[in-house]
Design a protein that fits this description.
- The chain has helices at 2-33, 41-61, 63-68; strands at residues 99-106, 111-117, 130-137, 144-145, 169-173, 181-188, 198-202, 209-211, 217-222, 225-240, 245-257, 264-271, 274-281.
- Strands 9, 10, 11, 12 and 13 form a five-stranded antiparallel beta sheet that branches. Strands 5-2-1-8 form a four-stranded antiparallel beta sheet, with no helix packed on it.
- The termini are far apart.
- By secondary structure, it is α+β, with helices and mostly antiparallel strands.
Length: 282
């Protein structure tokens, strides 16, 4: 009984933090529904409705704990079981990987600005996605990260998220110019699901803007298929406009992916720490 109460308390604590972010999105939705509709406004509306329904489920499922604190144990209570996984409801998919990573260093101020192109998600609109960035010196085990997360899987390690980035850029002070740095960025959706990190590197001693692009990677469309040509072992991932990964594989040389539905795809390629993303239409 005590374990069950603790689970209900934790569920309410998570909902309280989640509700704060939900409320922040409501004015944006109201503005769009009032006449400034965008292409994904309907999708945005559905994500808000789904979030509200989830909060209702949490409240209903914790009524037993709430009533036990204001009346005797003889009070009528209801405990609800989440059966969404057996009711045909798909699990929350992780956001896609941000792409087109860039870094720019200002020697006068010692500030470096990181930027990237927005990721996509199956439910959360791109403009509502949040981001997490990490920076470390090359070869070091110590790193700076805005939100605690697993670098390999992108799993968010805390239920109470703070420090997330609301835009597609971030600036910070670097104290050593003569050092190679590694950095990465991941997207986080409204369900607190973190995607894989996109990785890059930079050296403050190099002036100007540095982009992580791969020159020896070619991805293109022909005859309704996606073709690739790479010169070394490359991880290639094809993502549709819903943010769902269609293909993820390690390849080398030339190849083709056939029988894909017509539409727009993001094709991400990764060699070591460098990545490049192509936007293709079939």
């Amino acid at each position: 009984m005590e374990d069950n109460r603790q689970e209900q308390v934790e569920a309410l604590e998570v909902m309280a933090e989640f509700n704060g972010r939900l409320v922040k999105n409501l004015p944006i939705l109201v503005k769009e529904l009032s006449g400034n509709r965008l292409e994904d406004t309907d999708k945005f509306l559905k994500s808000i409705i789904d979030a509200i329904n989830w909060e209702i489920q949490v409240v209903n499922g914790t009524m037993g704990w709430a009533q036990s604190n204001v009346c005797s144990f003889s009070c009528a209570t209801q405990l609800w079981k989440n059966t969404s996984s057996t009711a045909g409801i798909l699990p929350n998919e992780a956001p896609s990987t941000p792409y087109n990573l860039k870094s720019s260093y200002n020697k006068e101020t010692g500030m470096v600005t990181f930027s990237w192109d927005a990721a996509t998600d199956d439910v959360t609109p791109s403009r509502a996605l949040q981001y997490n960035i990490y920076v470390k010196k090359a070869g070091s085990k110590e790193y700076f990260m805005t939100v605690p997360a697993d670098l390999q899987t992108g799993f968010i390690k805390t239920g109470e998220i703070s420090g997330q980035i609301m835009t597609t850029s971030y600036s910070m002070y670097i104290d050593n110019e003569d050092t190679e740095y590694e950095w990465g960025v991941q997207a986080i959706d409204n369900g607190k699901r973190g995607g894989h990190f996109a990785l890059s590197s930079f050296n403050p001693a190099a002036t100007g803007t540095q982009e992580n692009k791969l020159s020896e990677v070619c991805v293109y469309t022909a005859n309704g298929d996606i073709h690739y040509n790479v010169s070394e072992n490359t991880i290639i991932e094809i993502i549709n406009t819903s943010g769902i990964s269609i293909v993820r594989a390690s390849v080398n040389g030339s190849g083709v992916y056939r029988d894909l539905e017509k539409g727009v795809y993001l094709v991400s390629t990764l060699i070591g720490k460098l990545s490049r993303t192509f936007k293709l239409a079939l």
